[in-house]
Amino acid sequence: MLTINILTTFITIFTIIDPFGLVPIFISVTRHLNKRERQKVVFISSLIALPLLIFFLYFGKFLIHALGLSYESFYIAGGILLFLVALDMLFARPRGTKQDQEEETDSADVAVFPIAIPMLAGPGTIASVIMFASHAKNNFDYLAILGCLIVSIGFAALAMYFSDNLIKVLRKTGLNVIDRLMGMILAAMAVQFIINALQSLGIIA
C-alpha cells in the first residue's frame, strides 16, 4: 500500500528535471553534432542519469545517517536548494557554473556533462529523491518513486530527441512560458517542504 503522495512526488521530480526547459539547452550544447550523434547523446545521458538517481533513491538515506544529519535539516536544505532552482527557472538564468558552460563548448562528449550531470541528475533532483525516499515505508513506495523517475527521465529523453520539432511547434517563447509556470510550482513546493520541516521540529504550529 502506498504511503507517499505519488502526485506530489511526480510533479516535483518532473518539474526539477524540466524537460521543456532542457530543450533549448540541449540544442545549444549539441549544435556542433549531427543528428545521429545527438541521438546518441540522448541515449547515453539518460543511461547515466537514471542509475545515478536510483542509487540515491535506495542508498541516499543511509548517507544521511552516516553523516549524522537529521531528516528535518535535510528537508530545509533541500527546500532551499529547490527554491534556488525555481528562481533560475522563473528568471531564465542559465543552469550550471561558468566552467560548465565552457566545457559545453570545448567538449564533444556532452552526454555525461552537462546533460546527464547536472541537467538531468543535478543537486536538486538528487535532494528531492532522497527526501521522498526518506518517507518510503515499503516496496510499493520505492517502486512509485522509481516509476516517477523513469517517466520523468523518459519525458526528458523524448523532449531532447524531438527538440527540433518542439522548438518549431512551441517556439522559444512558448518554452519560456512553460518553464516559468513550472518554476512557480516548484517554488511553492520548496516552501512547503521547509514549512513541513519547521512544523516537525515544533518551531511553527
From TrEMBL:
<keyword id="KW-0812">Transmembrane</keyword>
<protein>
    <recommendedName>
        <fullName>UPF0056 membrane protein</fullName>
    </recommendedName>
</protein>
<feature type="transmembrane region" description="Helical">
    <location>
        <begin position="112"/>
        <end position="136"/>
    </location>
</feature>
<keyword id="KW-1003">Cell membrane</keyword>
<feature type="transmembrane region" description="Helical">
    <location>
        <begin position="142"/>
        <end position="162"/>
    </location>
</feature>
<feature type="transmembrane region" description="Helical">
    <location>
        <begin position="6"/>
        <end position="29"/>
    </location>
</feature>
<feature type="transmembrane region" description="Helical">
    <location>
        <begin position="183"/>
        <end position="204"/>
    </location>
</feature>
<keyword id="KW-0472">Membrane</keyword>
<comment type="similarity">
    <text>Belongs to the UPF0056 (MarC) family.</text>
</comment>
<dbReference type="GO" id="GO:0005886">
    <property type="term" value="C:plasma membrane"/>
</dbReference>
<feature type="transmembrane region" description="Helical">
    <location>
        <begin position="41"/>
        <end position="67"/>
    </location>
</feature>
<keyword id="KW-1133">Transmembrane helix</keyword>
<feature type="transmembrane region" description="Helical">
    <location>
        <begin position="73"/>
        <end position="91"/>
    </location>
</feature>
<dbReference type="Pfam" id="PF01914">
    <property type="entry name" value="MarC"/>
</dbReference>
<dbReference type="InterPro" id="IPR002771">
    <property type="entry name" value="Multi_antbiot-R_MarC"/>
</dbReference>
